Amino acid sequence: MKTWYQRTEEDILADLHVTKDGHTLEAAAELLETEGENVLEGGKKKSTLQVFLSQFADLLVIILIIAAVISAFTGSEESTIVIIAVIILNAILGTVQHKKAEKSLDSLKSLSSPSAKVIRDGQKMEIDSKNVVPGDILLLEAGDLVVADGRVLNSYSLQVNESSLTGESTSVDKTEGVIVEEVPLAERSNMVYSSSLVTYGRGVVVVTGTGMDTEIGKIASLMNATKEKKTPLQVSLDQFSSKLAMVIMVICAIVFALSLYRQMPVLDAMMFAVALAVAAIPEALSSIVTIVQAMGTQKMAKEHAIIKELKAVESLGCVSVICSDKTGTLTQNKMTVQNIYIDGKVIGPEELDLKNQLHRYLLYDAILTNDSTIVDGKGIGDPTEYSLVEMVRKIDLPDRAIRDMMPRLEEIPFDSDRKLMTTKYRLHGVPTLLTKGALDVLLDRTTRIRTSEGIQEMTEADREAILNQNLNFSENGLRVLAFAYREAEENENLSLDSEDNYIFLGLISMIDPPREESAAAVADAKRAGIRPVMITGDHKITATAIARQIGIFEDGDMAVTGPELDAMSDEELDEKIARISVYARVSPENKIRIVDAWQRRGHVVSMTGDGVNDAPALKKADIGVAMGITGTEVSKDAASMILTDDNFATIIKAVANGRNVYRNIKNAIQFLLSGNMAGILSVLYTSVMALPVPFAPVHLLFINLLTDSLPAIAIGMEPAERDLLSEKPRDPKEGILTRKFMTDILVQGALIAAATMAAFYMGLGQGGSALASTMAFATLTAARLFHGFNCRSKHSIFKIGFSGNWYSLAAFAAGMVFLNLVLFVPVLKRLFLVSSLTSGQFGMIYLLAIIPTILIQCVKMIREH
C-alpha cells in the first residue's frame, strides 16, 4: 500500500472522510473518542511502591537503621519501635511529596501545552493540540510547532525545521503534489511531522497521524521526559551536606573513641556516637528546598508566570536588567485603527467609502493582504492584522465575502527582515500585487501615488508630505502601516524582485495603548535596582513616545535603532549601554548582542520574546520569558518562564516571588543548621566534659521530625515583605553560606545549646542523668520551636507581626502539643524515655527555652532602631 506522501490529495481526503472545509464538530468529537488524544505516552514512571522503597536508600536512614539495631541489642525495645516508626513515617512523607511534585509538574506541562489552528465546519478556530484528530485541516505559519504528522495541501513558501527528527539543522522547503518513488523521511517534501517547527511561510495541511501514530511517536522512547536535574542551589546544598556528613562522621569516631577511653560499654558508646550523627545531619534540608521552590512555582503559576525549570526561581532573584518587548507586554496588544492618511488628507476609519475607488483599493489591500480573522469576537492571528479586519467590519464591509470572492493566487509572507507582506489577486479581472508594510521600506520601492485625480508620478513634495504625516502619527505613539499596489503582467510569477515600482495608496495608523499597570511595574523595577529596557521592532519615535509615557525613557536617556547599533563597536556599546533605554527596529542578532553586552558587565538579564527569531536571544538570556498568548511555540520552547497574560507587571511579580523564595529557603536553612548546631554543641560538650549522654537517639529523632520539618516548611511559606523590592538584586556568585550567615548560625546555635546545658545541669543536680536528659531534650525542642519565629525574617517579630504567617503559628502550636504529650502521657513517656517533671522543672524548661529567642529579638530591635 502506498504511503501518505505517494498518494494524491483527493485519495487522502477521501480516505480520511474529510473535505477542505475540515471535519464537522460532531465528527471531530467522535474521532477524538475513538483515536484518543494527540499526546505521546510518557516514560514509565516509578510505582508508588518503588518510590517508597527508594526513600530508604539514604545515608541518614541507614544511620537510623543502625541505631535501631543497636537499640535492639541493648534491650531498648521502645527506642527500636520509635526509630522504625519514624523511618516508615519519613518514607511515607517522602513518597507523598514525590507524587505531589509529579502532579504539579504534569499540571504545569498542561498549562504550557501548544495550541493548533484548524478548520472545522469551514471555520478557522484555535484548539488545544491534544484535541487534534486525523483528517483535521491544520493551518501553519511561521513560529508554529507542528503538532501532528500531515500531508501538505497548500504551501506558501512553507519552510520547516525537522532537526528533532532528522538531525538536519537547516530548514526544509515544503511543496504540494505527489512523490512517486520511495524516499527517506528527510526527503518527503510534501509531508510535515509532529514536533518540527515552522520557520518561514505558511501552509495548509491535512493531518494523517496523531499521538503515538506519528513518526516521533514511533521513537517516543527516545523522547520521554528526561529526569529533572537538581538546581544549582540544591547541588551546593548537597555538597555542603556531604561535607557536613564527613565532618560529623569524623567527630562521631572521636566521640566513640573518647567514650571507650572513659570505659563506657561498647554498645553505649556506639549509641552516643549515633545520637551525635542524628543530631547533626539536617536531613530535611534537600526536601525543604524542593518543597519551597515547588510552592513558589505553584504560586507564580496562579499569578500568570509558568516556571519551566526550578532553577529559574533562584535566578529570578538575581535579575538586574529586564529587556522587554513593547507590543502586548508593556502595551495592551489591542490595536485599534485611529486615523487614515489618504489622498493627502487625514480621515477617520468610519469615513472610508467602498464606492470611492481609491478607498476601495486601500480596503482591498487591508483585507486581502491579511491572514487574520475574527471568530465569535476573538481575533485569531496577528493583532495588527485583525485590527484592520475590525476596521472594515465597523463600516459594514463583508470581509469574509470579499475573501471568498477573490481567492489568493500567490503570496510572499511577512518577515522581520523585509518588513513587507505581498499577495497576488485578480482585481476587476487584472492580476494585481497588494503590499503592506513599514513605510521606511515601502516608500523606497514606490514610484507613483494614487489620488482622487488618478495615478500620478510621486514628487518630492508628495514624499515629504507622507514622511511628515508618518512622523506626526509616530510622535503621538501611533503605529503606522503603509499600503501600496501595482498591476502585474499576466504570466508574472511572484518573487522578491516583484516588490518594486509600486503605486502608493495611503497610511493607516493604529494605537496600542500602554497597559494600566505598566507604569507602576516599571517604577517597582527601578526601585528594586532593576534596569528596564524596551526592545521593539517598532519605529524609534513611536517606541520612545510609549517608553516615556510609562517611565522607561527619561531625560538624558538614549534611543537607538538596529542599524545604529550595528554601526557601534563593542567598546562603544559597552560605554553607552547604561544610558540606552530604547532599542527600535531591531533584528534578532541585535537582541543577542544587547543581552551579551549587559552580561559582560556582570548583570543577570531577563529577555522577553514571542517570535521564532526571538528564540536565540531567549536562550542567551539568563531568564528567557516567552509570551503565552501571542508567543510562538519556538519561543516558549526556548524560554525558562512563560507569561500566560503577556504582561510586564507579571515579570516584576515573578522577580519579587523569586527573591522571596530564595530568602525563605535561606531562612529555612538558617533555622535547620542553627538548631542542629545546638544539638552538636550539646553532645560535644557533654562528651568532652565526661558527662552522661544528654539525649537518647529517640529524643533526637523526635526533635528532627517535629522541630525541623514543620517550622522549616512554615518559614518557606513566609509572604513577601514590603521592602523586598527596595533591595538591590542578589549577586548570583554569592553562595548562601557566607561568613555572616555561618556566624549567625554558630551564635544562635550556641545560645540554644547554652540554654539546653543549663537545663541539663539543673536536672543532674535535682534527679540524676535520666531527669537531666529529659530536661535537656524538652528545652532543646521548645527552644527550636521558639527559634522558628527568629528565622522568619531579618526583622524583629514585632515589626513583621505574628499573624503574617499562620503556617508558622500552626507549626509552633503542633510542635508544643506533641512535646507536651510526650512529657505527660505515660505510654509516650515510656516510648521516649522521659522522666516525670515537677511544675517548677516544667516552668524552668520553658523559661530557659525562650531566653535565646528573647536575646535574638532584642538584638534585631536594637539594629532596627
Can you describe what's shown?
The chain is of the alpha+beta class. It has 32 helices and 26 strands. The strands form four sheets. Strands 10, 11, 14, 15, 16, 17, 18, 19 and 20 form a nine-stranded mixed sheet that branches. Strands 8-26-25-24-9-21-23-22 form an eight-stranded mixed sheet, sandwiched between helices. Strands 1, 2, 3, 4, 5, 6 and 7 form a seven-stranded antiparallel sheet that branches. Mean pLDDT is 85; it is low at 221-229.
Please name the defining characteristics of this protein.
865 residues; alpha+beta; 50% helix; eight-stranded mixed beta sheet; 32 helices; nine-stranded mixed beta sheet
Q: Tell me the β content.
A: 15-25%
What's the helix count?
Answer: 32
Count of strand segments: 26
Largest sheet: 9 strands, mixed
Assign an overall shape: elongated
- The span between the termini is 85 Å
Radius of gyration: 35 Å
Structural class: alpha+beta
The low-confidence parts are 221-229
Task: Assign a percent range to the helix content.
Answer: 40-55%
Q: How confident is the prediction overall: mean pLDDT? A: 85
